[in-house]
């Protein structure tokens, strides 16, 4: 269980709560994957009840087959077997994001954030792909350059983008614009 009072990877925070005193706004990410959003709001409001809070989600934008540099349709993966490979702080979030593809199976290989893959790791990933009969490996944009030597199945890159919910994008841009000094 992730906790609000701790920094990544143990908790939700990228900075300590004390950093709020320097903030003009708070942006909550992955609110669609958060089970205790009301608790987070409660703690943030106790820390500073004046700061605007924006909610956001990461939305899949595209899948790119790495070797061919071609876009692949999301629909192609319905009912297929996927091996998810990532070295990110929250691999469960990456796997949850892949569920939108409706695969028949998601096998997972996770490494620590910013992991430097060795040749042995690449060979192990390939073995797992073969053993699990995965149709493809799907990885993050961050991990893709480290997985170019994989040959046994196609490697796809899941491109995502941050989407602010509701009027969040307009409101955040207005907040930023009002903070910029124009001579």
The helicity comes to: 10-25%
Radius of gyration: 19 Å
The rounded distance between the terminal residues' Cα atoms is: 49 Å
> Mean of the pLDDT scores?
90
Number of domains: 2
Low-confidence segments = none
Tell me what the CATH architecture of the largest domain is.
3-Layer(aba) Sandwich
Write the layout of secondary structure elements.
Blueprint: E1 3-7, E2 11-13, E3 26-28, H1 37-47, E4 53-65, E5 70-72, E6 81-86, H2 91-98, E7 105-110, H3 119-131, E8 136-140, E9 155-164, H4 168-179
Parallel strand pairs: 1-2, 3-4, 6-7, 6-8, 8-9
Antiparallel strand pairs: 4-5, 4-9
Task: Describe, in plain words, how this protein is organized in 3D.
By secondary structure, this protein is an alpha/beta fold. It folds into two domains: 3-57 and 162-179, no CATH class; 60-160, Rossmann fold. 24% of the residues lie in helices and 30% in strands. The chain is built from four helices and nine strands. Strands 3, 4, 5, 6, 7, 8 and 9 form a seven-stranded mixed beta sheet that branches. A two-stranded parallel ribbon has the order 1-2. It is elongated, with a radius of gyration of 19 Å. The protein starts with a strand and ends with a helix. The model has no long low-confidence stretch (mean pLDDT 90).
